[in-house]
Amino acid sequence: MAVSVTASSIPSLCSDRTTRLASSSSSNLSSSSSLQFPLHLRRLRIRTNGVSAPSRPRILPPVEAKKQTFSNFDDLLANSDRPVLVDFYATWCGPCQFMAPILNEVSITLNDKIQVVKIDTEKYPSIADKYGIQALPTFIIFKDGKPYDRFEGALNADQLIERIETALKVKQ
Predict the structure, then answer these.
(1) Would you say residue 162 has pLDDT above 70?
(2) Exposure pattern of 48-75 as b/e (b: 16+ CB <10 Å)?
(3) Radius of gyration from C-alpha coordinates of the chain
(4) Are 109 and 158 in contact (CB under 8 A)?
(5) pLDDT, tens digit (0-9, with 9 covering 90-100), for 41-97
(6) Identified catalytic residue from 77, 84, 86, 96
(7) Does residue 137 have a cis bond before it (omega within 30 degrees)?
(8) For residues 153 and 4, what is the distance between their CA atoms, to the nearest angstrom?
């Protein structure tokens, strides 16, 4: 699928040079002067002050998390001796990637109070559907195998710790 933009809708394309080029090669352009951008240019952002390339992807530090495999998610929740904070995320989600080192810090800080688990919604869509995950990141605190508290969006470490501690104190 190509993106079609008329030259008159982008001020930077309406220069005298563009008009001369369009009139000199009018046989190649349609009467509406529409431009077809190739696939590799679709990633460019067009702003009022010109065109810019997408920013470079940020490289985040590796997270020191234990990878554990469970026979199923329900067993993990039922057999946990502490409440479980589940982070529903996706690898393509920017705020989810922002949360990775924060979750590691929270896991270390609240090690005796809560267990932190990450669920990739792309790999386990049935779990995401079961809990109605529609925004990322979504956090659910499970206690005694049942959803106990739920919130969405990226938080810094202090906000997340406060949210967890408040939820566990208020609802006990």
Answers:
(1) yes
(2) eeeeeeeeeeeeeeeeeeeeeeeeebee
(3) 25
(4) no
(5) 445 455 555 544 555 554 544 444 455 666 789 989 988 999 999 999 999 999 999
(6) 96
(7) yes
(8) 35
CA dihedral 94→98→100→106, nearest 10 degrees, is -140
pTM for this entry: 0.61
CA–CA distance, 88 with 131 (Å, rounded to integer): 10
> At 157, which helix (H) or strand (E)?
helix 157-170
Q: Which two tokens stand for residue 168?
A: 């566990």
Separation of alpha carbons 79 and 145, rounded Å: 8
143 membership: H or E segment, kind and range: strand 138-143
Distance CA 13, CA 11 (A): 5
- On whether the CB atoms of residues 115 and 80 are closer than 8 A, the answer is yes
Q: Return the SS3 of 38.
A: coil
Catalytically annotated residue among 22, 93, 127, 157: 93
The Cα–Cα gap between 77 and 97 comes to 24
Residue corresponding to tokens 């080029």: 21
Does residue 14 have an active-site annotation?
A: no
> Which residues does 16 contact at the CB level (< 8 Å), separation at least 6?
none
Residue that is written with structure tokens 């896991």 in the block: 107
Q: Could you count the other beta carbons within 10 Å of the beta carbon of residue 158?
A: 12
